[in-house]
Amino acid sequence: MILVDSDTPVTLDHSPVRVVYGPGRLETLGRLVRAEGASRVLLVTDRGIAAAGHLALAVQSLRFAGVPVEVFQQVHENPTTDDVAACVEAAIAAHADFFIALGGGSSMDCTKGANLLVTNGGRMADYRGEGKVTKPLLPMVAVPTTAGTGSEAQSFALISDAATKEKMVCGDRRLPTEGGLRPRAVILDPALTRTVPHRVAAAAGIDAIAHAVETAGCRTRNAASLECSRMAWELLSRGYEPALRDADDGAARAMMLVGAHFAGIAIERSMLGAAHACANPLTARFGIAHGFAVGLMLPHVVRFNAAGGPNPYAALQDDAGGLAERIDGWLDAGRIPRRLGDHGVKADDLPELAARAAGQWTAGFNPRPVGEAELLEVYRRAM
Fold this sequence. Notes:
By secondary structure, the protein is an alpha/beta fold.
């Protein structure tokens, strides 16, 4: 289904999450959540979104619709268990029966984590993996303000342990109407990405591109996921550089936002691979922004996976070497350092990074089997 500018939610192929699309559609937020039965809302966001003016517009829409709302705006990048705990306290204090996530992947992940604990209790570590959730979750609407993670289409939250910095993937694949972790509906409003700083837009965009590439190549890809991967790739590959060059290019920003959403659906229908497995330890150990980390590793993973065998990314581009070169070019366009050494990583750090990467969930979905030895070689190529 092709998205049209409308305040009526539509259901896309291969996803149960309903979508409202169009510039300025944030103004429909109040009517949307009221129609979903919300009576007491906790809106989760960060201070940057508030400073950009998006929070005020969202709250205004909710109040015009007669929906009581409390705001939690203490989300940090790469949310930790501490962020989730603070959000849980806010939800309990607000007697919330509905969540809204307004922001990038961090706001959406924090909201999902809080939802898990408010409804099911315990600690985030109790829900690592999937199939651990026993009670229905509260309904949620997501409004992404960056074109990146596609978390608004997914049934997983990525939360870091505050003590160890280790990222935990926590999921619940039940349908939204059955109390699952995916949002009931999302608003894709390209106007909201206009204020994103260049650095953030570059990192988020290359993350979305990595999602399209890795879902197209992973072992669990299928006809449905490949359709979404190809749609995402078509939009993201056309929109990335124009959107970075000119923030006023509304068409490019729309391609990025919708492309990131389709890439999120592709993740939900398949999985990722070694680029994400390698990126997570880089973020945990060196504080490298996730998009920069995964983007830096992606061309090396593409070359590794296509070496000596069929091209697992043929659904996107016939020549894997050419694909890796395009990604290198996008890293340059985003002013993203292309070498680990540029981020303070030293050769002596690589064995530990490889050991951590081998333990990442996404490593098991890579099209070419990888363990510590293989991932160490990929890291070395990225030095």
